[in-house]
Amino acid sequence: MKLLVRNLSRQMTEHEIRVLFSEHGDVSVCNLVLDQETGLSKGFAFVEMADTEQAKAAMAALDQSNVQKSKIRVKLAKN
Questions:
Q1: In what residue span(s) does the RRM domain sit (predicted)?
Q2: How many independent structural domains does the chain possess?
Q3: What is the helix (H) or strand (E) element at residue 3, kind and residue range?
Q4: I need a labelling partner for 58 at 20 to 30 A (CA). Which of 11, 21, 45, 48 fits?
Q5: Segment 66-77 mean pLDDT
Q6: Nearest residue to 17 via CA among 51, 27, 52, 53
Q7: What element of type H or E holds 60?
Q8: CATH no. for residue 17?
Q9: Which residues span the domain enclosing 9?
Q10: Strands (DSSP E) found in 13-54
Q11: Residue 78, class by beta-carbon neighbours within 10 Å (0-12 exposed, 13-18 middle, 19+ buried)?
Q12: Per-residue pLDDT tens for 8-58?
């Protein structure tokens, strides 16, 4: 199940996102979207979890939670 994570702190790393979601299950892919010109975070990422129940649990637990002073939003990504 592919999740869209929005409103991330611009300083948050791909590793930190992976660790955050790994608390709720196995993360198969984590892609932090970067600006091509600056190389800096655009403030959103895609996280894929193979187990649907784990992904739903992560979404329920992390949506609207405060992470590094930012209230993140987690929802199902549209392919």
A1: 1-79
A2: 1
A3: strand 2-6
A4: 11
A5: 97
A6: 27
A7: helix 52-62
A8: 3.30.70.330
A9: 2-67
A10: 27-34, 41-49
A11: exposed
A12: 999 999 999 999 999 999 999 999 999 999 999 999 999 999 999 999 999
Q: For residue 73, is it within any domain?
A: no
| CB-based burial, 35-60: b 16+ in 10 Å, e otherwise | eeeeeebebebebbbeeeebbbebbe
Residue 76 belongs to a domain: no
Radius of gyration of the chain (CA): 12
pLDDT-derived band at 69, boundaries 50, 70, 90: very high
Residue 59 CA to residue 55 CA, distance in Å, equals 6
In a domain, 22, yes or no: yes
Asked if the structure places residue 21 within a domain, the reply is yes
Q: Copy the structure tokens of residue 38.
A: 């600056």
